[in-house]
Amino acid sequence: MSEAKIEAWLDEDRAFAPSAEFTAQANAQSSIYEDADADPVAWWRRQADRLTWASEPTTSLEWNLPNATWFADGTLNASVSCVDVHVKEGRGDRVAYHWVGDAEGESRTITYRELLGEVCRTANALIELGVKKGDRVAVYMPMIPEAIFTMLAVVRLGAIHSVVFGGFSAEALASRILDSDCRFVVTADGAFRRGAASPLKPAVDEALKSCPDVSAVLVVQRTHEDVDWVEGRDHWWHDVVDHQSDVHEAQAFPAETTMFIMYTSGTTAKPKGIFHTTAGYLTQVATTYNYVFDVKPETDVCWTAADIGWITGHSYIVYGPLINGVTQIMYEGLPDSGGRDRWWKIISQYQVTILYTAPTTIRTLMKWGHQIPAAFDLTSLRLLGTVGEPINPEAWMWYRMNVGGNRCPIVDTWWQTETGAIICSPLPGISSTKPGAAMRSLPGISVAVVDDSGKEVGNGEGGYLVITAPWPSMTRGIWGDPDRFLETYWSRFPGKYFAGDGAKLDADGDLWLLGRVDDVMNISGHRLSTTEVEHALVGHPAVAEAAVVGASDETTGQAIVAFVTLKLSVGETEQDHARVIEELRAHVANTISPIAKPRQIILTPDLPKTRSGKIMRRLLRDVAENRSLGDVTTLTDPTVVNMIAGLMDTHATSED
Ligand code: PRX
Fold first, then answer.
1. Which of 155, 468, 577, 582 could be joined to 78 by an S-S link, Cβ 3.0–4.6 Å?
2. Measured between alpha carbons, how far is 3 from 368 in angstroms, rounded to an integer?
3. If you classify domain 524-647 with CATH, what class do you get?
């Protein structure tokens, strides 16, 4: 469907009724909301039967704001619920993962039985390296099966994984290792991206210079590039794992055993170590995966196109799908590895039925043109999902028409690292869908949109999204910082969880998410704080002061625009400035990650500040988005803003 047709369709402001294909046989039935509303805690307790318990819980929720426990007196092993149970119950020959490599033709199929063997071998190897219950293990890996074996092996031992996205810098990796005192690192020599080897081990080596307590590094040989080696500390995966026994007797742990830490950006420069515990998390990822994606484990081939370095990968590539016993695609490459038609090739080759991805990727595929997917048979698809940022109606419609053949429902799923699992989404077979709306909260979850004073808004009005009652997969806190946990999420609206997102209810009472209301940016679905990037910029010797804003961007949702004042010594010529801008962009990429590289850096002699000395980011955002400037009366020097607006016009935008 062309973009002009999409525009015309959107003008009519329609909603899609639940598709007939789903209404009769969907996993979730319309009584589900009533059942859950009648007694949400009891409803979640029934959902917890999806797990394989060693001893069943007799308690459900215990709530002492902001601390919740769910099913606390039960015991279980996370990896048994994900893997062993399927083998034990006769599903061992079902494919767990079709792994698809970056290079065309490279693939590996892993059944549930094979997965169990690999997880046991990895667990036995980790024991040999000294990993024990409660230890933290950093995982810095490409999208290869060993990453999943590692995660499952770590939780099998009652240890805690902290997966750090492979795109993060050595410095970012080091700060995460230190914050949670990881003693072990699992990594690879490198990763493949569009056929080229990109190193990982050198970043680990660099990071570990400041992490002396790491005693062992386990390294998968993926790219076969040369790497430095620290004898006694570094171990090749094939030396340590391959010869292990494929049997490991799993022990049961209490339901509230910490499973993993996932670092995410907040509004300060220091990322927060969000941690999740076992049974509540697993219950909600398994339940939401089942109902939101309407999975039929015997027949579906599910593809969550995300990286395991983010929460989406944890919840919907690893834990949720495995508990449901489905067959999945795990793809190593980029959307255009091997050509811009790579995704559609994978979907048609493996007969993918459920596709879950981010709006930023949909917009990229859309930019490449609808003719590309049109050349493939995509009729195996029956459901589409989106996550990570607000989806613009044009991208939603493009997805529905050109990928879903105007046949597949789209579930727009709103959630966060902190919520652990999906919170708001339509349910296939039950809900209507609207291009751009997350519609309502899931059964067993209560959300509201409130105004500044915490009062619920009416239909047609906007405000802040809050979650009004505890839910099983809620984070149990910020690693090592309980005060920050209370302050960040539970103080703005007493008694309610403040998500940091703006939202509105439309005339029908359906929910639309509007993006962050704090200093968190969303760049291609990746969370970054303005302060974190500012911190990196002022860490450069040439920079006196920096202010960063997220400006809207057609493809990436938001893009980073930085306003920087330089120290006098840098030189005044245009070449001096161009050189320093490039240096600063590279510096941010090295300090945080290439995703944090500013799209644009504006050099300015001054920054707009309030009389109390606070940088006025709102004004800078207006400048960056070419909006007319609002009230500038509290500025110390209102002319600064107009001067910066002038500079915006004269500076060329540099984009990668
Ligand atoms: O602003 C919301 C946005 O992503 C934030 C959470 O980011 P992260 O913890 O990295 O988790 C991303 C994957 C779950 C939210 O505060 N967000 C996520 N999903 C949506 C969304 N915004 C609008 N619509 C969504 N479906």
1. 155
2. 12
3. alpha beta
